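Discrete fold record:
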Amino acid sequence: MYLRMLAVSRLYLDNFPHVQASWFSEGKRTGQIALHFGADDWGGTLLEENVHKAAIREHDRRREIVTLIREAGFTPAQRTTEYDILKRY
């Protein structure tokens, strides 16, 4: 249901330049698939956030996220809140 809603939203909200994949609540594999359903942002990766920081070390999380995005067939990049690319991995 999540992936279907994402795909339909992407079609109807074509004036929204970016849509996040909700990998943290939906799971890592679903987050990877969501990139193929129209999402272009791997949401929930704010490395300075304290919400889930205790669960995973920052460096390990960054490496895992980069790997998951690459495995899905996309090029990971670190960005600002305005979607300016800071670094490509």
